[in-house]
Amino acid sequence: MKTKQILLILFTLSTFAFGANANSAIFGKDLLTNILGYDQVESLHLGYLFTLLQSTYFKPLFLGVLLGVPAVFFIHYMIIGPMIFSHDRKKIYVFSVFNRVIHSIAGVAFILLIPTGLVIMFGSTFGGGEFVRICKEIHAISTLLFIVSIVPMFFMWLRWMIPTSDDIKWMMILGGYLNKRKDPIPAGKFNAGQKMWYWIATLGGLVMILTGVAMYFQDFKIGILLENGISQIDFLRGSAIVHNILGMAVLALFLTHVYMSVFAIKGAIHSIVTGYKEEEEVEILHSTFYKELQEKGLIKEDKK
Predict the structure, then answer these.
(1) What percent of the chain is modeled with pLDDT above 70?
(2) DSSP structure class, residue 8
(3) What residues contact 270, with CB distance under 8 A and at least 6 apart?
(4) What residue ranges do the domains of the chain occupy?
(5) Which of 42-51, 156-165, 218-227 reaches the highest mean pLDDT?
């Protein structure tokens, strides 16, 4: 008798649950249609790829980036060492207060997003549970902070981030970081490496926001997806794949950005605090920009 009562209660509850989710993109009236449509002609065929990447490749790749990039920079620091520029010459004002505030907001967002994202990726390693759940919520809240910074950051530096021929020259010599000489490096206000980080952080960041929102909320409907026969599960799988690939790029370039600003160029991090760079640093590492400043009369040529 008790068994029948329990079954009846469970059946009643499931009926209410189904009714409450009638409009759900996952559990609603299209549930069976979606299930039967998985991996069929109209689908994106992401089931196998998603399972393969999630179960076999993503974790080792993230771990490789997390350990490999700092290891390479440690070797660079031990063999080449940091670039050191004179502090006896003029200081050049390159970052406004607005630039520094927006950069700081974005920096705080990345400092929160990247570690919590890694915890989510390696959730099973951390044993799941409350800690991983808290990191997931922090990750979501930090996204709001990132959204606040991404739009102004995109527009305030856009005109200096357009690729030029200097970027090809910079890439060919890896920015001059493989030797200890102070040869002038062809670069504008931002070099090719900084431009890569800018585009990944802004446009790539926008895509990560959209895919992250999709994975966080999961159960929603987008008309254009339904019209093109893309099931909710395919969309979520695609979002996860794109989010993780961009996540690896963000992790690698963020670690590079930190190394370059804190270790590779002695004192470079002060420029985003005070707004000023040392004249010799600009002259050597951003020679094209330095010449432009001279042509505009903003810097007088040293008499030799």
Answers:
(1) 80
(2) H
(3) 276
(4) 38-97+150-295
(5) 156-165
Name the residue type at position 76.
H
* Domain covering 38-97+150-295, topology: Fumarate Reductase Cytochrome B subunit (1.20.950)
pTM: 0.83
Amino acid at 173: I
Owner of token pair 């005109």: 159
Least confident of 130-139, 215-224, 230-239, 295-304: 295-304
Q: Answer yes or no: is pLDDT of 301 > 80.
A: no
Q: What is the pLDDT of residues 43-58, one digit of tens each?
A: 567 778 888 888 899 9
Residue 116 and residue 122: Cα distance in Å, rounded? Answer: 10
Are the C-beta atoms of 195 and 161 separated by less than 8 Å? yes
The amino acid at residue 65 is V
HSE value, Cβ hemisphere, 13 Å, CA-based, for 141: 9
Q: Is the alpha carbon torsion for 215, 218, 220, 224 positive or negative?
A: positive
User: CA-CA distance, 296 to 278, in Å (whole number)?
Assistant: 18
User: Quick one: which H or E segment has residue 278?
Assistant: strand 276-278
